[in-house]
DNA sequence: CTCGGTGCAAATGCTTTGCAATGTC
DNA sequence: GACATTGCAAAGCATTTGCACCGAG
């Protein structure tokens, strides 16, 4: 996955919206690109701090929204009050099975689902921007443990 | 839709969990049964107040969780920080197209989607409890308005 | 030079909690 | 009676905001 390409996408998006390319915004993007799996804004903030980046929490929140706008991160609202984010650059659109016992998240990709979703949208004359299927339940491990 | 049946479900669920059947809990259920579409906890609380029910906000929140547990209401977390609820008794499982411009929510039912979801779950050996597909985008009206 | 962005700390708003009083079982 | 539940107000938390300073264009 090309780090430069991601930064270019951000730069272009900023230019489009007549917004400025600040070092902080690109620093947040770097931190996101280094991330694995799901994370929350606070976690990213502290990871950045301990890596020596000086950003404020407010900027992290702001920039994450910005990154979502240009498709570089996905933002989810699972069961909790916390927003979860995930690097979205260079990976296919996918969905989540969320274990209510252990909090584990299983991802899956489904072309059928993507098509089905398109069908529904064109039937309702709705333009999809992004989407998330969340299935809450019990994962294999927790099922065995019971 | 049978109001009595809904109360029976709640009563049975409470008995199962060795929890008590209080008038407040049944009053919240009544308010939910009278509701149309999506609502939030605060809205339900004020509606109950103006109908003369005396419940605290805390009880409303508690009871809504209880009602979700026994499948009488569905709880959603759309884009906002507020949880949205919806009466789930006597209606098929459905999903949502959410317009980011006007906030309108379009519901749809899809057997195909339900089947697809079951397939994914059995493949991953995951036991689904409940699920929600949320498609964010622009609705027909807002699309025309632009 | 202009005005959008940043950092900080304080504010906001939803939800939960602590505790004494209440009422179910 | 015992103890789960309630109401109230206060506490918690994630997120946003206001404002003075800074720096990208």
Estimated radius of gyration of chain A = 17 Å
Strand order, main sheet of chain A: write it out: 1-3-2
Biggest sheet of chain A, open or closed, and with what strands and sense? Answer: 3 strands, antiparallel
Question: What is the name of the CATH topology of the largest domain in chain A?
Answer: Arc Repressor Mutant, subunit A
Largest interface: A-B, 34 and 34 residues
Strand fraction of chain A equals 15-25%
Q: Helical segment tally of chain A? A: 6
Give the strand tally of chain A.
6
**Average predicted confidence as pLDDT of chain A:** 96
- How far is the N terminus from the C terminus of chain A? 41 Å
Structural class of chain A: alpha+beta
At the fourth CATH level, what is the homologous superfamily of the largest domain in chain A? Winged helix-like DNA-binding domain superfamily/Winged helix DNA-binding domain
User: Segments of chain A where pLDDT lies below 50 for 5+ residues?
Assistant: none
Reading off the top of the CATH hierarchy, the class of the largest domain in chain A is best stated as Mainly Alpha
What does the oligomeric state look like here? homodimer
Q: What number of structural domains do the residues of chain A give?
A: 2
